[in-house]
Amino acid sequence: MTIINKIWSKQFVVQTSANKKTIFSAVLSAGLLAGLSGVSAETLTVWSGYPEMAPFYQHVAEGMKEKFPDLQVKVEAIALREHEKRVALGLSSGTSDTTVIELSGSTASRYIENELLPAAPDEVASFVKDPANFGSFFSQTASMDGTVYGVPLFRGQGSLFYNTEMFAAAGLDRAPKTMEEYSQFAEKLTKRDASGKPTVSGWSLRLTGGGQGIAEKFWINLFQFGGNVVKQTDDGKWVTDFANEAGRKALKQYLENVYTLKTVTPEMPADAEAFERGETAMFIRESWVISDIASKAPDLKYATAPLPRGSIGLPNNLYVAGEGDKANIGWEFAKAANTPENLVWMLKNVGWLPNRSGVDYSSVTNSQPAFAAFVDYPEGYEFFTLPSIGPVEEILTRFAAQLTNAFGNAKLVNDDAAIDAFLKTASEEIEKILDREDLLGK
C-alpha cells in the first residue's frame, strides 16, 4: 500500500508530542523577525482549515512586509474536511511552494510517521519547549516522541453559551452547574407551539451533521459524566471508556431531551446560527462564537460559563512542508504568528484562543467578558484532547455513525439494557480498529 493510500484509508474512511535560550525568544518578544534578511521574491502558501482564520494570516503577512518586502503570501483557508483532503494529497505529491500547514497534532501525526512533515529547526524547538512560552499540554501536542514538529498557535475549547434574556424569562439567574441541571434548565427554556412541539430549543444538541463533529460533541458531554471515547492505558496504548455508567448517562440524556422532555429535535436549527437567531437558549461551543456573535448578532444578550467538569482542548499547530533553506520562510511565518501583538489581534478579531503563555490578553478580556469562561475556570478543571494516533478520525466517524442511529431510536430512551447493548457494540467496533493498528491496550 502506498503512503498516500495508507494516509487516505486512515483519514477518510471516516472522520478524528534547552538549554538553548537562543536569540529566537528575544526576537519574538521584541516582535521582530530574524534569519532571512537575504530572502527576496519568496512565495509562501498558508493552508488553513478554518476560513475565519484567513484575516489573521493576512494580518501576519502584512506585518512581515517591512522585513521581507518581496515576500508573496497566499492564504488558502477552506472548510476543514476539504482542507484535510487537500493536505493528504498535497503532502504525498509534493507542493510547488513553501507551505505553512495548519493542523491539529492528532491529524499531523500520520504525516510525521510517514516522514512527510519535517522536524522543526533547533531554535524553533527551543522556543516551543520553553515552559515560559507554552505549557506541556501544548508543547507535547506539537511534538512526537520528544521531537518538535510544529509551532502551537490556537485551540478550540468548549464552554456554555446561554441567552440571558431567555434565562431571565424562565426564572433562571445563572448557568447550569451540573449535567442534571442542563436537562432541568432545558425543559424550562424550551418554547412550544399549541401542540407542544418545540419551536425554540432549550438546549441545542449536536444530533446531525458532519460525522466527527457529532462524536466530538458527544465526547464533551460524556466527559462531564466521567467517561471518554478512548483513554490511554499504562502500556501507552488505548481502550474505550464509554460502555459504562458514564456512557449510559450521557446517551440517555440525549435521548431524554429528544423523546421525553422534548426540548430539541434533529430537525430544529442548531449550533451558533440558531443561537444568534434566538432559536435556541443554550449550547456548548468554542470561543470563535464570540466574534461570530459580534459580527452577526451584536445586540444579542448572552453570557458564557465553564462546563461542569472540564473541556475538550483541540490545539492547532503550524507545520512547514519542505526542508532546508526552502522551508526557512515558513518557519519565519510560524514565528511571526506567535508574536504577542499578533496573538492579541487573533483573540480580539477572530476569537480563537492563543496557546502561548506569558502574553497579556487583558485588553481583550476586559472589553469582552464572554472570554472569561475560557480563561477563568474553577480549580481542578480538566482538559482532554483527541489522541495523536493514526485512526482517531476513523474512530470518531464510525462512532458518530453509531450515535446518529441511536439518536433516531426512540425505543432506547427507557431501556437501559438496550442502551448498554448499543454502547457495548460501539465499543467493540472501536477496539477492533485499535487492535488492527496494534494500539489496543489492556
From TrEMBL:
<keyword id="KW-0762">Sugar transport</keyword>
<comment type="similarity">
    <text>Belongs to the bacterial solute-binding protein 1 family.</text>
</comment>
<dbReference type="GO" id="GO:0042597">
    <property type="term" value="C:periplasmic space"/>
</dbReference>
<dbReference type="InterPro" id="IPR006059">
    <property type="entry name" value="SBP"/>
</dbReference>
<dbReference type="Pfam" id="PF13416">
    <property type="entry name" value="SBP_bac_8"/>
</dbReference>
<protein>
    <submittedName>
        <fullName>Multiple sugar transport system substrate-binding protein</fullName>
    </submittedName>
</protein>
<dbReference type="InterPro" id="IPR050490">
    <property type="entry name" value="Bact_solute-bd_prot1"/>
</dbReference>
<keyword id="KW-0813">Transport</keyword>
<keyword id="KW-0574">Periplasm</keyword>
